[in-house]
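Cont'd.
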Amino acid sequence: MILLTMLFTFFKIGLFSFGGGYAILAMIRQEVVIHHAWITEAEFVQVVAISQMTPGPIAINAATFIGYQKAGVLGSLICTFGVILPSLIIMLIITMSYLKLKKLPWFQQIFKRLRLLSVGLIAAALIMIMGNAVRDWYSVAIFAVCFAATWRYKLNPFTMLILAAVFGMVFGSA
Amino acid sequence: MLIRIFLTFLKIGAFTIGGGYAMIPLIKREVCTRHGWITEEEFLDGLAAAQSCPGPIAVNISIYTGYHVRGKAGMLLALFGTILPSTVSIIIIAILFRQYAEQTLVKRAFTALNPAVVALIAVPLIQMAKKSGLNAKNAWFPLAIALAVGLLNVSPVYLILLTIAFAVYETRR
C-alpha cells in the first residue's frame, strides 16, 4: 500500500514541478516532509546536498533516495518511475504539437506567469532550508563564503560542496 | 542506432553533476554537433518546450530528442540512459548512507554542507529572477508565493493551478 502511495505522490510531484531543479524542492518538501512525514526537515537538507553531489537531475536523485529510505530498492524504482511518468506523457504530447502550441497567446501567457511562480518557489525552498541549516555564526560564515564563491567566482556547485564537506570534517563539531 | 542513442544519453546522465541546467550544453554538443541528430533550431524549440513542461529539464529534453531521432523507442532509450546513472549512484549512496549517517565524520561534514546548500539555492534564485522578467510591479507575486509556500506550507499544487487559470483568463478577457 505504501508503494502505491509513493507512486502516486511522486507522480504528483513530477506533474507539478515547473521551472526545473530548485523549484521542484518546494513541491518535494511539501509532499514528503509536511504531508506524509516520510523524512524529517534535517534529512531533507541532506537529500538536497547528496542530490547535488551525484550525477543527474535533483528530482530523480531525491525520488530515488527517499524511495530507498522508505521501501528499499523497489521503493526507489517506484518513486523514480512516478516522478518521470508525467514528463513522459506531457513531453510526448508537446513534442508532437509544440510548434502549433507556441503560437497561441494563452499558451505563452501561462509560461510567462509560471516563470515568475518558479522564482517564488525557489525562494520558498530557500526560506524552508534556511531555518534548519543556518543557525549560528559558524553556519552563517560558511553560507557567506559559499555564496560568494559560486556567485562572484563561478565555482561549480559540485566542487563547492566537496570543499564544504572537507571543511566540515576538519572544523565542524558533531 | 538505438544503442547509440542509449549510450549517448547514458554519458549525458553520468557526466552532469549539479543537475538541470548544467546538462544543457553537454546535450546540445552531443545531439547537434557530434551526432547531428537534430538541428540547432530544433534543439532550441525542444529546450523551450522542456523548460515549459513539468519535470526535470534534462529528462524532458532527452524525451524530445529521442523521439525526434527514432520515435517512441528512441524516446524511451534516451530517457532510460539519462536516468540510469543517477538512479544507480543514488541507490549505492543511500545504502552507504544508512550505515554511516551516524558516524561523527559524516555528521561533521553536514555541519558545513547544510549552509552550503542554502548558498547553492540562493545563486540560481538570483539568476532565475533576472531571466523571468521580474520588476517592481510584479515582484509581489513571487514574494507572495515564497511566503505562502515557505512559511505557511501552502501546497504549490493550488498555486500552480491558480496561476494557469489566471493566465488563461487574462488572455481570454
